[in-house]
Amino acid sequence: MMSGRVASCWILVAMVVVLSTAPAGGDTAEKGVTYDGRSLIIDGQRKLLFSGSIHYPRSTPEMWPSLIKKTKEGGIDVIQTYVFWNLHEPKLGQYDFSGRNDLVKFIKEIRSQGLYVCLRIGPFVEAEWNYGGLPFWLRDVPGMVYRTDNEPFKFHMQRFTSKIVNLMKSEGLYASQGGPIILSQIENEYGNVEAAFHEKGASYVKWAAQMAVGLQTGVPWIMCKQPDAPDPVINTCNGMRCGETFPGPNSPNKPKMWTEDWTSFYQFYGGTPYIRSAEDIAFHAALFIAKNGSYINYYMELHAAIKSSANPLLQEKQTILSLGPMQQAYVFEDENSGCVAFLVNNDARKAIQIQFRNNAYSLLPKSIGILQNCKNLIYETAKVNVAKNMRVTTPVQVFNVPDKWEVFRESIPTFSDTPLKTNALLEHTNLTKDKTDYLWYTLRFESSSPCAYPSLYIESLGHVVHVFVNNALAGSGHGSRNITVVKLQVPVSLINGQNNISILSGMVGLPDSGAYMERKSYGLTKAQISCGGTSAIDLSGSQWGYLVGLLGDKVRLHQWANLKSVKRSTNDAGLIKNCPLAWYKTMFDEPNGDGPVGLNMGSMGKGEVWVNGESIGRYWVSFLTPAGHPSQSIYHIPRAFLKPSGNLLVVFEEEGGDPLGISLNTISVIGSNQAQSQLS
């Protein structure tokens, strides 16, 4: 589960090559973007495109020029980005295109550096983004069912899609207007959920395609992982091995495109990172090109070899030859355009010698060799030469002086403090509206008869629960990516008479995908007290009180101006550690230089961090991987958030940690040889 708040850069670093040749039948003066069964055709020229993704709100506007420049230097010619509905329309009819949400500025920066854009409007985008980019207010629209043939959803989807398209048109950003946008995407991986909506799924796909095409952008529309994409929308592949898994577009008149070549999987709390090998990425990218692919969003250095053979690849028909039980040759040849051959060894266990046109070529296991002029081996995917780098983290400040910290403790609300009361357990997000992660459930429990070894059992569909009895923490529990129901049984200390039970339900973001997302429920579903593990008193139907959010949320404690309005707690070293529901504040100066800056939160538990009022994300370093390590402990601070001195750091700690162990670090990358010399 990942938060859209994280202000860090998101790049699928893709080496991109645009290889241009005129389409069959000669040159043409036609401007804009068209396509046929071989490739996109831009301003009359065939294009073999490789693309990389930069999602604009995952970095700051100050970072955009450098990120785009670096990707261009690596060979990029197309940058893909999603459009994030919940950022741009946080409230119905109220739009935000400022700061990190300035989509127009981002696209104009891409244009200024001479690159193309693939604009993935969605407006459902998934993107490992909170709620898949859908604004939460959409759930409260009467009769709403997401992503199906549902009139309320279609109305708002068309309204927002039109808003984005008209904004792009007004700025002259489509290629048909001379701008950089050569492709637009409607929906995203709908084929994963279409069957759940039965016949309304198919009719929704048809409607979405017609709606998008009707907006007349002058550039092609695509649908990824959508085999039934209606003409003229192009269906594309997402995955790791589209050269093997993608049967191709659903019409011979559409080009073969790979919109997401997954170089990795996103990491979740408690999960270990997964990175594909460069050799595997290269093999499947080369195989896709060999099988008539003409667009890949991926990472590799394969582009140079392909660039040298642009003409035969784009102009000539493919010939497939069998060279062995697990070996093939894909040949593109013409006496005018030249010749290129892809020799494929699919055997993952042994190297093989291939005979091709009276020459012998040795290929390593699971490898593809590219023959320029169908003779000279200029590239082999299993011999990718990738520089090995090491990330170096250098502490520049440790916040280990107690007197430099101020601490503010959240009060634990009781039933009498809550403004809303009802005889039922209410659903978490119906009350919070995703404006805060937190909701208090409070209860008064009368204990009049002796209860031996009392314990409280609760079940929750939320992600985290913290149980307080008579103002003392009794226990905590959480789910995971694979455990959606939190089950917690904790011993409690009851007094004769009235006991105050306060349960804090916490979320770490909403799901990014799935069918019927609007029906999903969160928060407490069951509560009972038992005595000695025998008799149980069901509390679910008791009168509960509810309080949305934390006090620190309400007074916006993460901002400088409001810190003076809250009573400060002690900053004694022994008393600021291991405090649940505590806000910590300190100041720091910007490190020298212009390199990346990161905050090491390894000494803390779970919470959120702000720098000068800007959230740099939720942290959860106490949720360890199977190997016993945090999934993440260092959090990026964009330089744009910082000033030379007097920077405000605010930390909300949910579980209890040690702020004296937090450190400010600079991040650098060095080559493997340099790293070895430093270690020796």
UniProtKB/TrEMBL annotation:
GO terms for biological process: carbohydrate metabolic process. Residues 39-300 form the Glycoside hydrolase 35 catalytic domain. It catalyses: Hydrolysis of terminal non-reducing beta-D-galactose residues in beta-D-galactosides. It comes from the Eukaryota. Its EC number is 3.2.1.23. Its main location: secreted. Residues 328-384 form the Beta-galactosidase beta-sandwich domain. Keywords: Apoplast, Glycoprotein, Glycosidase, Hydrolase, Secreted, Signal. Pfam families: BetaGal_gal-bd, GHD, Glyco_hydro_35. It is found in: Secreted, Extracellular space, Apoplast. One of its GO terms (molecular function) is beta-galactosidase activity. Residues 581-647 form the Beta-galactosidase galactose-binding domain. Residues 1-26 form the signal peptide. One of its GO terms (cellular component) is apoplast. Belongs to the glycosyl hydrolase 35 family. This is Beta-galactosidase. It comes from Brassica cretica.
